[in-house]
Amino acid sequence: MATVRSSSEGILSDDRRPQREELIGLLTKAYWMEIETVMNYVTNSINPDGVRAQEVRESLEEDIQEELGHAQQFATRIKELYGVVPSSVDFTAEQSFLAPPEHQTDIVHVIKGVIEAETGAIEHYNRLIEFTDEIDPVTNDMVIAILRDEEGHRRLFEGYLREYEAEGLA
Ligand SMILES: [Fe+2]
Ligand SMILES: [Fe+2]
Description:
The chain is built from 4 helices and no strands. The protein has helices at 17-44, 53-80, 107-132, 137-166. By secondary structure, it is mostly helical. The N and C termini lie far apart (66 Å). One fe (ii) ion binds at residues 63, 67, 118, 121, 149-150, 153. One fe (ii) ion (FE2) binds at residues 63, 67, 118, 121, 149-150, 153.
């Protein structure tokens, strides 16, 4: 006997399948963004040289665990929505701005790259929040919490950039 889930079951109901599939696509993009951020924050928590790079390196090192946690949350939600979490064969890199600079003392390059990555996440998560607003309160709630983390990350790095701007170095 086929189970027909009624629309009273919200986003998990059978008649919401098209919206659910679109949502899984948006969540998959978010998952990749987090995974790529983890890779590049590992890179940039290690490469930079110099006394002033230390603060940036340490703060990226802390963020790695947080971004990994975000990736795991997005992956879990994909499964809950009857999707399948992809493997690395489907991965396409997009964060060229976080590639190592020519000189490893160029910390402004790293700071600007982090701000760009966080801005990309903020834009995509705002879209996810808008998309789920009426149809999926659980994903909506989850992404709102993640968005706050990303806004906090960006604000911290904007502060670092201000210091360099004040000295005419950025
Ligand atoms: Fe994140
Ligand atoms: Fe972040």
